[in-house]
Amino acid sequence: MTNRRAFLTTLAAVPLAVAGALALRRSANAAAPMNATLDEIRTSWRTLVPTGADVAASPDPLVRDNAEWKKLLTPVQYDVLREEGTERPFSSPLDKEKRAGVFVCAGCALPLFTSRMKFDSGTGWPSFFTTIPGHLTMKKDFKMIVERDEYHCVRCGGHQGHVFDDGPPPTRQRWCNNGVALRFIPA
Question: What pLDDT digit, counting tens, does each position of 33-47 carry?
Answer without folding.
Answer: 456 899 999 999 999
